[in-house]
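Appendix C: a fully annotated inverse folding record. The material below is reproduced so that readers can follow the format used throughout the book. The structure is listed first as tokens, followed by the designed sequence.
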């Protein structure tokens, strides 16, 4: 089995898991039966994991959302969808590998699926630019969505990006225009759109493929206008205040659900999605099926009206100012 990567707050779990591995090695190398001790420690590790994960801070959840072993878009495509055929290029400049997408089937029904893709190793991370898309990535995504509209196919998108790439070359090719165009076009796309935040949902880079009829969010993912480090750098002039920024920004699934910005929180396996990819995919498939059933039979006009009302509802507030009389 590949070695697990533990975060700083998971060290008590790491120590227990280390002891379990040592006992398994001893049992393999000797005739002594210590399976009962191993089972007891495994149960203790499971309970410790539940206890730690029941009281996570927003900053700790951010670390989980960024975990290098967390499932990415292609992992979900391979587990949840069938007959996937990847489509490449934006027909303008290049093929941005930080966004993948193509035709597939969901429960036997044809659809278009796309999302951000980070890399597993150094070479792939560089090729996919750590999931930070350039304008051609968003234009590719829009091309695929317009193709889906042409053939009346539902669109499933998966968000997992620190944010849009802020490099000079991206700005020269119209980064802000590409993001704005996607938001504009998705708001009036005449087919159902279902979006899932699977890791980091960062800034306009996330929103460019996240204007949807149903927005799902994994339990330990985050969604925000800026990263906690970026927010801290602006407010306190130092990224070391990222933990305080994360607490104040309301970036977690439960906070966003309470604000009405996401429709459903998809529970993750004990210890996070990175601990069990297949179980996480099974949870997500069930949630996607429920979300799809809610919008599948809507007429185009009703679909667009509901989507418009949804977007217009963002940022509503109640004035609680005391009467000035």
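Designed amino acids, in order:
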């Amino acid at each position: 089995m590949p070695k697990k990567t533990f975060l700083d707050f998971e060290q008590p779990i790491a120590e227990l898991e280390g002891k379990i591995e040592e006992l398994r090695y001893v049992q393999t190398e000797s005739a002594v039966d210590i399976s009962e001790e191993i089972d007891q420690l495994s149960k203790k590790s499971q309970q410790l994991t539940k206890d730690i994960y029941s009281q996570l801070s927003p900053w700790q959840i951010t670390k989980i959302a960024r975990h290098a072993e967390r499932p990415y878009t292609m992992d979900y495509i391979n587990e949840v969808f069938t007959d996937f055929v990847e489509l490449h290029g934006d027909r303008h400049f290049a093929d941005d590998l930080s966004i993948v997408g193509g035709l597939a089937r969901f429960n036997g029904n044809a659809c278009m699926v796309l999302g951000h893709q980070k890399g597993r190793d150094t070479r792939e991370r560089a090729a996919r630019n750590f999931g930070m898309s350039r304008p051609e990535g968003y234009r590719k995504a829009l091309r695929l969505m317009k193709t889906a509209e042409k053939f009346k196919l539902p669109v499933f998108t998966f968000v997992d990006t620190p944010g849009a790439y802020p490099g000079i070359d991206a700005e020269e090719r119209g980064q802000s225009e590409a993001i704005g165009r996607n938001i504009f076009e998705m708001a009036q796309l005449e087919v159902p759109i279902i979006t899932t935040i699977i890791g980091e949902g960062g800034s306009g880079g996330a929103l460019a493929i996240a204007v949807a009829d149903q927005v799902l969010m994994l339990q330990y993912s985050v969604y925000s206008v800026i990263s906690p480090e970026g927010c801290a750098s602006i407010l306190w002039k130092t990224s070391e205040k990222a933990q305080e920024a994360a607490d104040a920004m309301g970036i977690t699934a439960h906070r966003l659900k309470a604000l009405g910005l996401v429709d459903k929180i998809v529970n993750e396996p004990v210890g996070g999605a990175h601990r069990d990819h297949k179980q996480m995919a099974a949870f997500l498939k069930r949630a996607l099926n429920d979300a799809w059933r809610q919008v599948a039979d809507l007429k185009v006009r009703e679909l667009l009206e509901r989507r418009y009302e949804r977007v217009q509802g963002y940022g509503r507030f109640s004035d609680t100012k005391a009467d000035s009389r």
